[in-house]
Amino acid sequence: MQNNNQNRLVYLAMTVAMLFWGFSFIATKYALQEIPPISVVGIRLFFASIMMLILLFFTRRNNPLPPLKELPFFMLLGFLNPAATFLLESNGMLTVSASLSSLIMATLPLLTPLAAFFILKERFTLFNVLGLVISFLGVGLILLSKQLSVEYTGLGILFLSAAVLCSIFYSILARHILRRYTALTVVGLQQTFGFLFLLPLFLLREAKEIFASPPPFPNLLAVFALALFASTLSYSLYNYGLKNLGTTKANAFINITPVITTIASYFILGELLSVEKILGMILVILGLFLAQGKKRITFQEALGKSAG
Question: What's the total number of domains in the chain?
């Protein structure tokens, strides 16, 4: 009974994390109306770092900080995500259409099992793979309903592919660190180092403009909401799920975000909800359920039997 309750709690945590991330696209879109992109992320990480460090200070007995010799692991975590992932993704989207960029980023759950198997020795089942493929097809249908554009450059594709790799290695490194530290400790230091990595870029490119003409309060409030819900709470819940589910099953939830964004856009922005979008959302959810399933014969064992 206790394991069932814990499983429900883990799945609830992952669902809430994806819910916040799904709504974050709308909040980001609103913030970007008045605030440049590097400033949005920089201010967001500044607020998130402050909140997480205060929380860690008051809960330091339950969330101990690592010794100095292990700080490089947390620095690498913050560099991979959000610093490098954001920079690569934003630069890639300059020359690659938004819909194609989203489709490339949606390959993250598909590629994660291979990296987790070779690096962490995590096993994945046939159901896991089938679920991820179906979920990916669902994301494709949602994007196709928006008249998928295939405008791109080779450099843009390279940037986005590198962003996917950074996200994969982030989840693998986070999974490794979470074996020894709590989700709050990991997220707190990750957000802080991520902010420090982006700070020089913010100071060089956008700080003068921001300080000379402060953004309107409603847009700053949107950035604060991103810091609280998308950076602080979502990453804490995601890392809690990552610790308990493993990288393959945890990253399978990522494809829920376009579903949540699509539904939120329908109610908040008045975007149309086409048949293709509805079918795509059904496929994403179906794929997620399959990806969480268990089967006695794993993918690796099936390959071994067919070879024999």
Answer: 1
